[in-house]
Amino acid sequence: MDFSRQSPTVGYEFEKLVNKVNTPRAIIENAFDQNATLIKALKPKEPILVCDPFERCVDVVQCTAKHTSIELLGRDRPGLLSEVFSILTNLKCNIVGAEVWTHNLRMAAVVYITDDEDGSRIDNPGRLSEIKRLLLHVLMISSNSNRGVIVSMGGGSTHTQRRLHQMMYADRDYDEQSQPAAMVTIEECPEKKYSVVGVRSPDRPNLLFDTVCTLTDMGYVVSHGTIDAEGPHAQQEYYIRHMDGFPISSEAERERVIQCLEAAIKRRSSEGIRLELCSEDRVGLLSDVTRIFREHGLSVTRADVKTIGIQAINIFYVTDASGYPVTKETIEAIRKEIGLTVLRVKEDHNSSTTTTTSQAAGRTSEDV
């Protein structure tokens, strides 16, 4: 073959083949720092995959070919998650995993389900259509809409938490900004044709993941970056430009990048008190627990649902229906109803209301 005369399509396919042959290499060093592990990810330059190393470091339940995946996006309100889980349980579905985020009066969720009788993937078109119809009704979205509920069989290639970012971004949750959780600046570096993005915020798990994935999904190439996370705050700096090699070109684009990064960091800011539920898994468990939350006037602001073997390991962040801290009496009543050894209050220093809610509950993590 005359490679000098190959078509663009052949060249593109050949480049993909080279990238597949040259698989990523990772070097892990523990001697670098006594308080940290150094991970070096080495891969031929391929900007679109810049998030891959970070996705692999984030602990999350991913959908497999044995699960049916449901994506939900709608206006948030107290009791919404309880209604969603109740519908799925009534339709003979077992919820094996879920990630739920709320931000700016929106709720985004990715839920993984199986058939509650044999644990198989649900793929009957009629049954899936009924699931979608009832969930759209709960979300108060027209059944003719293409938004709100997406049902798919098997696992997608997109990381669950990255998908939540994409769903919120597509719904323009960044347009309605409250108090930002980060200070974002953008400066130009004309001699190098880069835009320099600076992000300063309180340090927390997955901060780097949220920032880099957002920039990548907005169509920017992160060419260089530095992160300083010593102490309670983190300082990030990235040199970015478009896929076509040009930096940020207008004030409107600059403001949009700032808003989107502020929103990406705020989405994972956990509002409310953290409740951890650990028990043997059973069909209807989540429906029962979230119903009890709703009956006691609680609103779930974030949830992380996992099933490991026969064990259910679930985390909920809750406030009262108005967004205020939950009282000690309410927490104790809920724990007694669900089980004192099953539901525990956990101190979370990343929660925006940790101090207040801990005082309201009259306990620390060592007390429960």
UniProtKB/TrEMBL annotation:
CDD domains: ACT_ACR_3. It comes from the Eukaryota. Residues 69-146, 274-350 form the ACT domain. SUPFAM superfamilies: ACT-like. One of its GO terms (molecular function) is amino acid binding. Residues 349-368 are annotated as: Disordered. Keywords: Repeat. The keyword Repeat applies. Pfam families: ACT. Binds amino acids. PANTHER family: ACT DOMAIN-CONTAINING PROTEIN ACR, ACT DOMAIN-CONTAINING PROTEIN ACR4-RELATED. This is ACT domain-containing protein ACR.
